[in-house]
């Protein structure tokens, strides 16, 4: 771990410019990967930080403890970046790229001959798993590959594992999400198979706040000056979690990223940024969370507390991404450039005045699903005038935004207006929608009923994992045990008991409304599980190459007696007990993947977030 204060001289006092110290820490981690830790404090940054290696994590002590203040823009740091089209409209490079925290890998694309393995030899339909290829050299069972589809300058990509190889064909472990091959006409997508070769993986940004102090008024659409917080490009298996961004042009930009997660991200402002010529919508930035040419990215438990031109974006061929369990002040969804098969589920759309105002196209969003989007603050249909935004937080109160996620069960909601048919083809709408889709190409509009889950992704994820039934004789803790654990970990929080009860009531198996669980507990849950999996994988418990079991953890900080162990000591601060299926301690092995077996995992997390897994309690 690289401590920016102890090892690199950062002050963290909110006055000194800590850029050189932070850049030096990142440079050290780029040579020898590890965690770059920013202890509690306020750090001033005046130039970007660039992560270029796998295994580098930029970590704060918490959104309410670690703050990065930025008083300049990327346009101030770098010369150029401006362009002007034929009509005289000014556009900038910073509208779609660049960030003061950048994670940058080597670009993977269809034109790279050094990664190319084969061409797709005949037509393939969306949903197929067997791919005819002109060569099987280098294609072996268990290998990850990228499948590219190109048509002119357009490109789509997906990744999969090789399940089998035969004479002139390869079988993938999942369906192909797009059609390719065909008769070779100009309308056909040409497909090729490449090595899966990301150069930046297993890193991320977490537990801190980024605030722009000099961003001023937001300018015209796409004329951004580059008050951009985080940009991740050409990376895989990376994350952003528990991050708050304030006063940005673009809070989070991802391009060519796959198998990644964006969890518990809050975006807001501390002062008005909308311009005088935008009094109707009062937009205060360009993009809050944007995916471009991304696939298999989970964006969950977000809170977009002010209006951007585009709150959630999935563009340029982005597919198989999930936006789940989040909320926005007045949600706008942007999908252009041929995205497909994305899922938006269990989202509080806020006022609901401009959900589909960003234009789509006839080719946009095919097989995309909008499931249980709700508007507790809007009226039936989309309005032509903005509703006023509630008072914005101060900088010190910015973290409080993160606590408002999801919808309460008893909230009154209103139907959302369906978009015009030009928004896209083959779109699916589940929930309460106003309007008609009779003339829209391939649209499906279905109301929800009591038998349908509130979060489609959570339910699908749970069912695909074949989660085991509860163990006979298992006990859930009583309210008093929950209260004791709550006070141990969270102090006297009014919301804590309800959160713990909610977790316990749905401990294993079943859908848990994770939105109500305190973010610190969610973070530590993932930390413990990740550490446990790494230990098991490194020790050979999952085979070689590792075959990881489906993860169905449920955080349970429980009364030890109720946890099924008479030998457990009293739960103390930093100790966590987590239900994990598939880990069963038995002689001769550290942990084995046993179907239907559930254990409690005991672990301790110290003040620097280091994990010690010190026992498993059979249950």
TrEMBL record:
Pfam family, one: Pect-lyase_RHGA_epim
Transmembrane domains' residue ranges: none
UniProt domain Rhamnogalacturonase A/B/Epimerase-like pectate lyase: residue ranges: 6-74
SUPFAM superfamilies with a match to the protein in the record: Pectin lyase-like
InterPro entries the UniProt entry points to: Pectin_lyas_fold (IPR012334), Pectin_lyase_fold/virulence (IPR011050), RHGA/B-epi-like_pectate_lyase (IPR024535)
Official protein name in the record: Rhamnogalacturonase A/B/Epimerase-like pectate lyase domain-containing protein
């Amino acid at each position: 771990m690289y401590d920016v204060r102890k090892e690199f001289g950062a002050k963290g006092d909110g006055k000194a410019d800590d850029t050189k110290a932070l850049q030096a820490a990142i440079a050290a981690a780029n040579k020898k990967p590890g965690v770059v830790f920013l202890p509690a404090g306020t750090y001033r940054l005046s130039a970007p930080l660039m992560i270029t290696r796998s295994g580098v994590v930029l970590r704060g002590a918490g959104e309410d403890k670690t703050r990065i203040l930025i008083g300049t823009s990327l346009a101030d740091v770098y010369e150029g970046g401006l362009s002007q089209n034929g009509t005289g409209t000014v556009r900038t490079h910073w509208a779609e790229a660049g960030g003061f925290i950048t994670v940058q890998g080597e670009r993977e694309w269809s034109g790279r001959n050094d990664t190319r393995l084969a061409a797709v030899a005949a037509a393939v339909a969306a949903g197929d798993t067997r791919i005819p290829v002109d060569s099987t050299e280098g294609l072996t069972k268990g290998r990850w590959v990228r499948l590219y589809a190109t048509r002119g300058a357009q490109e789509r990509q997906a990744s999969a594992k090789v399940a089998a190889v035969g004479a002139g064909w390869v079988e993938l472990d999942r369906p192909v999400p797009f059609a390719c091959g065909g008769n070779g006409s100009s309308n056909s997508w040409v497909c090729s198979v490449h090595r899966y070769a990301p150069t930046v993986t297993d890193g991320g940004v977490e537990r801190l706040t980024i605030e722009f102090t000099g961003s001023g008024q937001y300018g015209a659409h796409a004329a951004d000056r580059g008050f951009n917080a985080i940009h991740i490009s050409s990376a895989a298996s990376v994350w952003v979690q528990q991050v708050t961004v304030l006063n940005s042009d673009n809070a989070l930009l991802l391009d060519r990223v796959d198998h990644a997660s964006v969890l518990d991200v809050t975006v807001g402002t501390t002062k008005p940024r909308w311009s005088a010529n935008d009094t109707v919508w009062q937009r205060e930035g360009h993009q809050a969370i944007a995916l471009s040419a991304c696939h298999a990215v989970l964006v969950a438990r977000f809170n977009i507390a002010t209006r951007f031109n585009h709150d959630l974006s999935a563009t340029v061929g982005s597919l198989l991404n999930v936006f789940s369990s989040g909320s926005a002040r007045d949600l706008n969804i942007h999908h252009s450039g041929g995205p497909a098969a994305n899922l938006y589920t269990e989202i509080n759309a806020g006022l609901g005045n401009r959900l589909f105002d960003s234009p789509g196209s006839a080719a946009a969003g095919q097989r995309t699903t909008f499931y249980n989007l709700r508007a507790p603050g809007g009226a039936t249909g989309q309005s032509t005038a903005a509703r006023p935004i509630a008072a914005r937080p101060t900088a010190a109160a910015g973290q409080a935004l993160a606590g408002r996620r999801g919808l309460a069960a008893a909230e009154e909601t209103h139907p959302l207006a369906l978009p015009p048919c030009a928004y896209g083809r083959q779109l699916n709408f589940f929930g309460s929608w106003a309007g008609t889709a009779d003339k829209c190409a391939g649209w499906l509009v279905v109301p929800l009923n009591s038998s349908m889950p509130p979060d489609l992704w959570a339910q699908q994820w749970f069912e695909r994992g074949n989660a085991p039934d509860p163990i006979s004789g298992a006990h859930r803790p009583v309210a008093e045990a929950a209260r004791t654990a709550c006070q141990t970990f969270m102090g006297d929080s009014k919301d804590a008991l309800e959160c713990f009860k909610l977790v316990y009531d749905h401990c294993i198996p079943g859908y848990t409304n994770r939105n109500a669980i305190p973010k610190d507990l969610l973070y530590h849950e993932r930390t413990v599980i990740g550490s446990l999996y790494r230990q098991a994988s490194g020790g050979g418990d999952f085979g070689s190459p590792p075959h990881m079991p489906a993860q169905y953890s449920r955080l349970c900080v429980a009364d030890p007696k109720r946890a099924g162990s008479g030998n457990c000591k009293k739960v103390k601060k930093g100790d966590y007990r987590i239900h994990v299926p598939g880990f069963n301690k038995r002689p001769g092995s550290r942990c084995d993947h046993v179907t239907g077996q559930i254990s409690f995992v005991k672990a301790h997390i110290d003040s620097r977030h280091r994990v010690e897994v010190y026992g498993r309690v059979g249950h």
